[in-house]
Amino acid sequence: MKKLEGKVALVTGCSIGIGLATAKRFVAEGAYVFITGRRQTELDAAVKEIGENVTGVQGDVCNLADLDRLFATIFQEQGHLDVVFANAGVADFAPLGAITEEHFDTTFNTNVKGLLFTVQKALPLLPEGASIILNASMNSTLATPA
């Protein structure tokens, strides 16, 4: 039996990289996976690459209406989630003296707001024993002088 046989998972930030690799692995382990990403073209390519047991829902984790639509889709199609892999994150470096309010907002909206509201909005769909994996952070921050 596969490790995730019969499980339903969500992977955010899934168009490339860690998110795409995780979604592929979850499907290989037997899960049905919902994936999301901001750019429809890349999301469609990810769905095609994964191939089976996957639904792509275009959206931005920073946009609460997009998250509401995502979780409504998951509820309508599967009724619950067993795994949330919150993966959306950005690392846009700038020298300390050059950081703008827009830069700050973009970074924190994705890495903090998006992460928090993804998990919060998933809670009603998570039964006891479900898993939440947080992979969205600024854990590779590099400070540069102004």
Quick rundown:
The protein is built from four helices and five strands. The protein has 146 residues and is α/β, with parallel strands linked by helices.
Features:
146 residues; globular; alpha/beta; 5-stranded parallel beta sheet; disordered C terminus; 4 helices
E-strand count? 5
Helix vs. strand class: alpha/beta
Low-confidence stretches: 138-146
Q: Classify the helix fraction into a percent range.
A: 40-55%
**Shape assignment:** globular
The N- to C-terminal Cα distance equals 55 Å
Strand order of the largest sheet: 3-2-1-4-5
**What fraction of residues sit in β-strands?**
15-25%
Radius of gyration: 16 Å
The DSSP helix count reads 4
N-to-C series of helices and strands: EHEHEHEHE
Largest sheet, in brief, is: 5 strands, parallel
Average pLDDT over all residues: 90
Written description of the protein model:
The protein has 146 residues and is of the alpha/beta class. It has four helices and five strands; from the N terminus they run βαβαβαβαβ. α1 links the parallel β1 and β2 (32-37). α3 (64-77) packs parallel to α4 (101-122). 34% of the residues are buried.
